[in-house]
Specification:
Elements (H helix, E strand, L loop, with lengths): L3 E4 L6 H8 L6 H20 L4 E4 L5 H9 L2 H4 L16 E5 L2 H10 L10 H7 L9 E5 L4 H13 L2
Parallel strand pairs: 1-2, 3-4
GO cellular component, one term: cytoplasm
GO molecular function, one term: ATP binding
Organism: Rhagologus leucostigma
Length: about 160
């Protein structure tokens, strides 16, 4: 697509990385500043009319609201009020699959700070997207080319 790509893991503060490396799941207090920083990156790209892809484990509905609206998404289920910065238009791609498939992929990953032992805590935290969120669900049981094609098709269809 020629879009900028950001991996949210690259923006975790050192404290978060250390915590995960020790097998300690992150909590909301750990994640909110990180999500606000990611929102600021997306806001900057939007202001320069640059489309971007962000790979991010936005596990909870509130986390997705923060990505869309910044810090104001923490307290409210509502979009920002008139006169504030408009909410970003984000298509969330929910990569869905059984824990065993994801665990086997995590086992093959090398040099990452999050150990596979934290996967269960992520499944426990997960609030899958639902209406009225703007999202698609893509099965991880498909081949990588099928996954990419489904995501590209959804983006191009608007």
């Amino acid at each position: 697509l020629g879009w900028k790509f950001y991996d949210a893991d690259d923006y975790h503060p050192l404290e978060n990385k250390k915590k995960m490396a020790e097998g300690i799941p992150l909590n909301d207090e750990d994640r909110i500043p990180w999500l606000c920083a990611l929102h600021n990156i997306l806001r900057r790209e939007d202001a320069s009319r640059q489309d971007a892809i962000l790979a991010c484990s936005a596990l909870k509905k509130m986390y997705r609201r923060v990505l869309i609206s910044g810090a104001s998404g923490i307290e409210s289920n509502q979009p920002e009020q008139p006169g504030e910065n408009p909410a970003l238009n984000i298509l969330f791609v929910h990569l869905d699959g059984p824990m065993d498939i994801i665990a086997s992929r995590l086992e093959k990953r090398r040099g990452h700070f999050m150990p596979p032992e934290l996967l269960k805590s992520q499944f426990n935290t997960l609030e899958p997207p639902s209406a009225p969120e703007n999202f698609i669900t893509v099965s991880l049981e498909k081949s990588l080319p099928e996954i990419v094609l489904q995501i590209e098709s959804a983006i191009l269809q608007g």
